[in-house]
Design a protein that fits this description.
The chain is mainly alpha-helical. About 75% of the residues lie in helices and about 0% in strands. The chain is built from 4 helices and no strands.
Length: about 120
């Protein structure tokens, strides 16, 4: 059976039912992934604010390397291609760093200058 056959509805009703069941599962998993990513980014935003407040660098290469190694192991155990898992995490890490840099810039812009305060003489 070709894709065009199923697109026209020529597939056996049992096959169409199984496709629908599987696609519904995929849709539910996609929704869960989006919600989990949203929760993850809420946490990383808090990390970004904490780093900015304490003038810590937006990136942490040591942590990133440990996370990649950890995720690769998790992927292997889950029978998921570790290279794919690494690419996925690298994409997320890049976005997190971009957010942290923006938070740091916004925090620096909102923080009063560290220049010494001088008082004016009566004539100025």
């Amino acid at each position: 059976m070709t894709t065009s056959d199923t697109a026209r509805g020529d597939a056996d009703p049992a096959v169409r039912e199984e496709l629908t069941r599987l696609r519904d599962s995929i849709d539910n998993i996609d929704a869960a992934v989006v919600h989990m990513l949203a929760e993850r980014f809420k946490c990383t935003q808090q990390v970004g604010r904490l780093k900015a407040e304490h003038r810590l660098p937006p990136a942490d290469p040591g942590r990133e390397a440990r996370q990649i190694a950890r995720l690769r192991a998790l992927a292997e155990n889950a029978k998921l291609d570790p290279a794919f898992a690494e690419k996925f995490l690298n994409f997320i890490i890049a976005e997190v760093i971009r957010h942290h840099e923006r938070i740091a810039d916004d925090t620096a812009d909102a923080t009063p200058s560290a220049k010494p305060v001088t008082t004016s003489s009566a004539g100025e």
